[in-house]
Amino acid sequence: MFGGGKSFTLFRVWGIRISVDWSWFIVLFLVIFWLAGFYGDLLGKPNSASEPYLLAVASAIGFFGSIVLHELGHAWVALRNGIGISSISLWIFGGVAQMDRESDGPGTEFKVAAGGPAVTALIAIVLFAIGLFTVGWATFQDALEMRNTAETTGIMAMVAWLAAINVLLLGFNLLPAFPMDGGRIVRAIAWKVTGKRSAATKFAAGLGRVFGYLFIGLGLYWIYTGDIFSGVWMALIGVLINSSARAASRQTSVTSHLEGVTVADVMDEHPVSLPGSTTIDRALEEYFLRYNWSWFPVTDGSGQFSGIAIRDRMDEVPETERLVATVDGYLEESSRNFFISKEAPLESLLGNRDMRKFGALMVTDHLGQLAGVITVEQLGRALRP
Hints:
Layout: E1 7-13, E2 16-21, H1 24-43, H2 50-80, E3 85-91, E4 94-99, H3 106-135, H4 137-144, H5 154-173, H6 181-194, H7 197-224, H8 228-255, E5 274-275, H9 280-291, E6 295-299, E7 305-310, H10 311-316, E8 339-341, H11 353-358, E9 360-364, E10 370-375, H12 376-383
Parallel strand pairs: 2-3, 5-6, 8-9
Antiparallel strand pairs: 1-2, 3-4, 6-7, 9-10
């Protein structure tokens, strides 16, 4: 949903870095502190007992896992649609999957935005099913409402709390307040209806600002009525939503003249490419030394883009092997993903991380064949009014 500041890595999934900001530990501490008291009252245990504390820690871990799975839902759909995910970061106000580029169409935008809520909904359904089949609706409802008189075990109380928190997460994320998931779904629908990304973004950002002000107002009301903690929290969320929506609206104003411009309209249609079957010795002599470039796009025998050859890596090949070793065996790692369709909107390149690495992206046609190259300089010229 949003992004935080500095973070450190916990683990990796599908090569995606999962990290947390220090502020996330504030959330975990508050959840554990609050739930330990609830579980103690429910089980009739004193504050010094370990069972309520362990249940609270397990609940906090489950909450953490729910947020990670939500963001992995976005990531999985994005990866299936050719959008790279560099990291997933968690911080005090939620999580964010950092995409390498924008969606290239309303359909992709909708699917990526809905991926996270779909996972959260599935988690809630599974947890509700466990509760209903284990203790029945009446008892599970008491646990959902966090009643101290609920006649259930600590484990089922934890299941009920996780079910409730995932329902709350689902509802909150589906609010049509850009840049939250619901706001992005609204943008995808408006984009499909109008055919214009910029108009859709302005509409969704406008809704986001409205909800931002509503959250701020609600937060101030709660503070006035004495609920200071919840009021401050809600007001801060409102400020973040408002500022993010305003930033998106401003960016759209800058890039609105790109509406209808595709990558094919700007790219270099005649790039120098390097056949993958070329030996390292010949590649160095006839390409890298001749053109004095540090990299070349590589194609296979049918002209399809295979990846990128870097001179530094070619130089590392022992001289005794250069006469027989071919370029396609020494492509830059993951560089076969450094491409974009020639039909993609030019504005989808904004913020593209892969493009920043080499200062360019390879452009392919619908068959995957190399059709051109688009550079950072060409994109910069197109951005000028």
